[in-house]
Write a structure and sequence with these properties.
Layout lengths: L5 E6 L3 H16 L3 E2 L10 E6 L6 H18 L4 E6 H6 L1 H6 L5 E3 L7 H11 L3 E3 L20 E5 L1 E2 L10 H5 L3 E2 L2 H13 L4 E5 L15 H9 L7 E5 L8 H9 L6 E3 L7 H6 L6 H14 L4 E8 L6 H14 L3 E6 L17 H24 L5 E6 L7 H4 L1 E5 L5 E5 L10 E5 L2 E2 L4 E3 L5 E3 L2 H14 L30
Parallel strand pairs: 1-2, 1-3, 3-4, 4-5, 5-6, 7-10, 10-11, 12-13, 13-14, 17-20
Antiparallel strand pairs: 8-9, 15-16, 15-18, 16-17, 18-21, 19-20
């Protein structure tokens, strides 16, 4: 194969898909492809769509994008288009019927087959559809092109054993399958050796880790083991389920210095009646009780959540229970979503679907309340001295304001004055917070200290190597940066949590 062949991976959906796309990129580069320059917009030899099935209109979005590539493919002999991810797992043969110019369709369980399927499609000159029904190889055994030199996702499990009525993930990613602890720690140690200083443990329900072997404390043991890895400065995880959230996890978070004082735990609704309809196996009292225990152990912890507004059958009284829970929990931020039907989920066929205008009005009320709480909670940070890990691509206005941006230990976004000495993504800057907005903090004074790190060295080495590549093989700078919660406009985390 010509080593100059280029590829582009387009990712939709949750953190799990972002991580899978790193694997897909790694597989393609291992097979000799090079990443297309940023902004190529389909002008590549291979375009891969890593799809999400969470949104009601996910298929329309996919077929619209495929349609725009059809004339481009006609003009570019040898171009190939592949579709993978959750929508591919769900729709299978439908994709090629609706878009016969697609060359490869693969599922969530066999992403490792992509290069082989592309080559087979090229030789046989016909579409290759291969959907495995169960996991063939744990994704972390595949080559990876990490999007960040200083922060990394580390998958600890795939699949989910829950049956939430709004979520199609268990049907598409299968039952939970845990990865061996030794393999997880070995991957983290290898990443740290490469310069990574922050990792995020990733799973559909991370705190159910260990269910394969019947060890209810396996996740807390994993957190404590991460605390013993020299050079690993920050450990985060997403997302836990309240049902499996045990006191030993709280203790491990509080007692392990490199586990950050941050918790993202989806609540989804504050109404016990709606939680039951969602098949969420906890109630408001249980959820708020966990938060109370977390704050008792870690007073400065920032807690965030996911909330769905307008679930079928939700009354004004149910919605007020959600508002009450939000007032009690005082989340640092909440990713709120208007319920929309997910094809293939039980909730899509439930009675009591809420009119869109009612859902919208409730959504606006909840958003306004959470905005007020987020701002109040951020104001409490003013005057504090924080260690901020410099990030890449987090501050859209940094160029105009002459500031840099990064994440505090609790994952709050901080914009700060650029220090006199050069700093790189992955380095750590100590700042004093002078101003708070609902979604970020500002440190307007001169930084108090700058600490160069091995992570910054890794970023510099990577970008220098990328810049030295000849034209046409340029991999470009990383665009995702440190793993962080999805923006509020995105889909819920693929049913995570």
């Amino acid at each position: 194969m010509d080593v100059q062949k280029s590829y582009e991976v387009r990712t939709y959906g949750c953190q799990m898909n972002v991580h899978d796309s790193e694997r897909l990129s790694g597989l393609l580069e291992d097979a000799g492809y090079v990443r297309a320059p940023e902004g190529s917009d389909g002008d590549a030899d291979v375009v891969v769509f890593n799809t999400c099935a969470v949104r009601e209109n996910a298929d329309n979005k996919l077929y619209g994008n495929l349609g725009r590539l059809a004339p481009m493919k006609t003009k570019r002999p040898g171009m190939q288009i592949a579709v993978g991810g959750c929508l591919a797992q769900k729709d299978r043969d439908t994709i090629v019927k609706r878009a016969p110019w697609v060359d490869v369709v693969f599922g969530t369980h066999n992403i490792g087959k992509l290069p082989v399927l592309l080559e087979r499609a090229r030789i046989q000159e016909e579409a290759q559809i291969e959907i495995a029904e169960s996991l063939e190889a744990f994704p972390s055994t595949l080559p990876t092109r990490r999007e960040s030199a200083y922060a990394a996702w580390v998958s600890i499990s795939v699949g989910c054993n829950n049956t939430c009525t709004f979520c199609i993930v268990p049907a598409l990613r299968g039952k939970e399958k845990d990865r061996r602890t030794g393999d997880i720690l070995a991957e983290i140690e290898a990443l740290v050796a490469e310069g990574v200083s922050e990792i995020t443990l990733l799973g559909q329900n991370v705190n159910a880790y260990g269910s394969d072997i019947g060890d209810r404390e396996a996740f807390s043991k994993l957190l404590r083991a991460c605390g013993k890895i020299e050079g690993l400065e920050r450990v985060r995880f997403t997302s836990p389920h309240p049902r499996d959230f045990t006191d030993d996890v709280i203790a491990a978070m509080a007692e392990t210095p490199n586990v950050m004082p941050q918790l993202h735990m989806p609540m989804q609704s504050g109404s016990d009646r709606i939680l039951k309809a969602m098949r969420r196996s906890y109630r408001q009292e249980r959820f708020l009780g966990i938060i109370e225990k977390v704050r008792a152990a870690m007073p400065d912890a920032a807690i965030s959540t996911d909330i769905i507004v307008g679930f079928p059958g939700e009354t004004e009284e149910d919605f007020e229970q959600t508002m009450h829970a939000v007032r009690e929990a005082r989340f640092a931020n909440a990713f709120t979503f208007q319920y929309s039907k997910r094809p293939g989920t039980p909730a899509a066929d439930m009675d009591g679907q809420i009119p869109k205008e009612v859902v919208q009005e409730r959504y606006m009320r909840l958003s306004a309340l959470q905005e007020e709480i987020s701002w109040d909670e951020n104001k409490k940070q003013v005057g504090r001295t924080l260690e901020v890990m410099v990030a890449e691509g987090e501050g859209r206005k940094d160029g105009a304001t002459q500031r840099l941006s990064g994440r505090a230990p609790d994952n709050r976004l901080v914009h700060f004055t650029q220090p006199e000495q050069p700093v790189r993504p992955g380095d750590v800057v100590t700042v004093e917070i002078t101003y708070a907005a609902p979604h970020h903090l500002l440190a307007e004074g001169t930084p108090l200290a700058v600490r160069s790190t091995r992570a910054g060295d890794a970023w510099e080495k990577r970008t220098t190597a990328a810049a030295a590549k000849p034209a046409g093989v340029m991999l470009g700078l990383p665009t995702i940066g440190a793993p962080a919660p999805l923006p509020a406009a995105s889909a819920p985390a693929c049913g995570i949590g």
